[in-house]
């Protein structure tokens, strides 16, 4: 893991003369940017898109019901020996079971699918780290949540990270602002 600490910044100062001058005879070239995560939404075969929809729906149904067995059917959890900072099967079990009875509705819609080699994993309130997993699909979804018993609603974005395997797609990670959702959908006295 790489940790970079930066300090000693100085603001509102003029840079030294010539800092941004180009060498004699050279010109500034601005290459066309190559997206780090190419969007493949439009080229994804219909049957694969349908499989992603089923997979995410199954995971969310298990999450909403607090049913870990149903939730886990859509997942491929990290190997116990893995050094990746992904939550373990047991951590996911605790998270899923803690959701039971808290939501009346939890539904998402796929917005885009991107192919990536890295994805973020939240490791603390204001921290995340990147996990390298070549060829992972980042499935961006719009998410609508309603609290139990007609409670308040929340709308925003969640991202699923999905890997292709021999038996089809499996979710390897999911990033959603669960604490924000929990607070926003809590019934107010």
The number of domains: 1
Kindly report how far apart the N and C termini lie.
Answer: 44 Å
Question: What's the helix-strand series?
Answer: HHHEEEEH
Quaternary state of this entry equals: single chain
Q: What is the arithmetic mean of pLDDT? A: 88
Low-confidence stretches: none
- Please state roughly what percent of the residues sit in beta strands, choosing from under 5%, 5-15%, 15-25%, 25-35%, 35-45% or over 45%: 25-35%
What is the structural class? alpha+beta
- Spatial shape: globular
Broad CATH class: Alpha Beta
- In CATH terms, what is the fold-level topology? Nuclear Transport Factor 2, Chain: A
Architecture per CATH nomenclature, i.e. the level-2 architecture: Roll
The major β-sheet equals: 4 strands, antiparallel
Rounded to the nearest angstrom, the radius of gyration is 21 Å
The percent range for helix content is 10-25%
Number of strands: 4
Give the strand order of the largest sheet, numbering strands 1, 2, ... along the chain.
1-2-3-4
**Helical segment tally?**
4
């Amino acid at each position: 893991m790489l940790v970079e600490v930066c300090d000693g910044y100085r603001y509102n100062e003029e840079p030294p003369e010539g800092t941004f001058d180009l060498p004699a005879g050279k010109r500034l070239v601005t290459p066309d940017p190559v997206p780090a995560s190419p969007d493949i939404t439009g080229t994804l075969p219909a049957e694969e898109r349908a499989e992603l929809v089923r997979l995410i729906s199954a995971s969310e149904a298990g999450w909403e019901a607090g049913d870990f067995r149903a939730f886990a059917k859509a997942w491929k959890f990290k190997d116990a020996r893995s050094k990746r900072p992904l939550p373990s099967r047991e951590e996911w079990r605790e998270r899923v079971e803690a959701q039971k009875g808290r939501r009346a509705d939890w539904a998402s819609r796929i917005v885009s699918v991107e192919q990536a080699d890295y994805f973020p994993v939240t490791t603390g309130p204001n921290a995340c780290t990147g996990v390298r997993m070549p060829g992972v699909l980042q499935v961006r979804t719009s998410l609508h949540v309603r609290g139990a018993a007609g409670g308040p609603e929340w709308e925003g974005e969640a991202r699923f990270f999905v890997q292709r395997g021999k038996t089809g797609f499996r979710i390897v990670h999911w990033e959603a602002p669960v604490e924000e959702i929990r607070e926003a959908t809590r019934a107010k006295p």
